[in-house]
Amino acid sequence: MSINFSESRVGKMEETVGESKRGIPLMKAVEDVAQWLKSEGEISGEDGRGRLDEQYRKYKMIEAGMAQQRLRLMEKIPEFQNSLRLIDTLIEKKEKGESFETSPMISEEVWTKATVKEPKTVSIWIGANIMVEYELDKAKQLIIKNHKKLNEQLAELNHELAFVKDQITTTEVNIAHVHNHVVKQRRLASMRMAAAN
Amino acid sequence: MASGDSDEQPNVTAADQQLINKFARLHQNFAQIREEMASLMTDLANINEAVDEIMLLGDDDGQAIPYKIGQTFVHFDSDSINERLEKDKEQVETDVDEMKDKSKNLEEQMEKLKTNLYEKFGDHINLETDKE
């Protein structure tokens, strides 16, 4: 049995991101700046930009936090791969009835030699300073199950990240629009001043 | 993103925004895939180097070659280690192919969006696709 590791590495490309399951608010595209400013409560262009800037910072913070989380999950993938490969090796040796030599790590940068006569069981670190000894097949099943869970977590996270990315892009475009609006208003005002003088 | 101070800027509708968002997302994924590809290429180079080195070993040295799995080395004779490396190589190559397909697909989608968006916004929009 083999598992596809590459799917989790880079998320699936979704057509539309839909909505956030974590309740991250949606940023609406501002199509008409003047109307948007009105709907926000008759605020000035500068205030509007300030509001968007603040939202932008919030989205960026959420994104950074989730990207960090994603990185931590991604780091676990090679660990699962290695565990699986090691268990597969043990199973292979067991089936062939072979003993084999190994150099396990006993401390950072220190390895020792050992001979495994008859691989039967393997201990799995299940967290909280606890290890449980499993038969090889059972151990493999557990690793695969946990890997599946990890993949699910990653998929969920990738979805949320894609959602946040969309909100960030929308906010960037909105900020540009409001900025342009402010510049235009100023230019109009100074032109009016010049005409009055 | 959209910028430019010119007065005659076409309106960005919510539908346009969706396209821009999608482009930005594709672009981000594209960058991730490229990183992933680079690391796979390193793996491939390492495997090839290992195969070459093993070929140079004499019979005595080829009896027990430590092969690193996670934090442990398991010792193999040169035949079974070659078999393993061959398998590793196949796996990496499949992964690389898969990544290539994905990145090609992303590129095509990005090109399509680019054509659409440039058509409407012309100089008012700048969509980056740094190829290499």
Structure characterization notes:
Chain A: Pfam families: Prefoldin. Chain A: Keywords: Chaperone, Coiled coil. Chain A: This is Prefoldin subunit 3. Chain A: GO terms for molecular function: tubulin binding. The complex is a heterodimer of chains A (197) and B (132). Chain A has 4 helices and 6 strands, in the order H-H-H-E-E-E-E-E-E-H. Chain A is of the alpha+beta class and 197 residues long. Helices cover 63% and strands 13% of the residues of chain A. The N terminus of chain A is likely disordered. With 132 residues, chain B is mainly α. Chain B has one domain: Helix Hairpins, CATH 1.10.287.370. Chain B is built from 2 helices and 2 strands; from the N terminus they run αββα. Chain B has a two-stranded antiparallel ribbon. In chain B, helix 1 runs antiparallel to helix 2. The two termini of chain B are 21 Å apart. The N terminus of chain B is likely disordered. The chains are: A alpha+beta (197), B mainly alpha (132). At the A-B interface, helix 3, strand 1 and helix 4 of A face helix 1, strand 2 and helix 2 of B. Strand 1 of chain A pairs antiparallel with strand 2 of chain B.
What's the short story on this structure?
The complex is a heterodimer of chains A (197) and B (132). In chain A, 63% of the residues lie in helices and 13% in strands.
Would you spell out the secondary-structure blueprint of this structure?
The complex is a heterodimer of chains A (197) and B (132).
Chain A: H1 6-9, H2 33-39, H3 45-96, E1 100-103, E2 105-107, E3 110-111, E4 114-116, E5 121-127, E6 130-135, H4 136-196
Antiparallel strand pairs in A: 1-4, 2-3, 5-6
Helix pairs in contact in A: 3-4
Chain B: H1 14-56, E1 65-69, E2 72-76, H2 78-121
Antiparallel strand pairs in B: 1-2
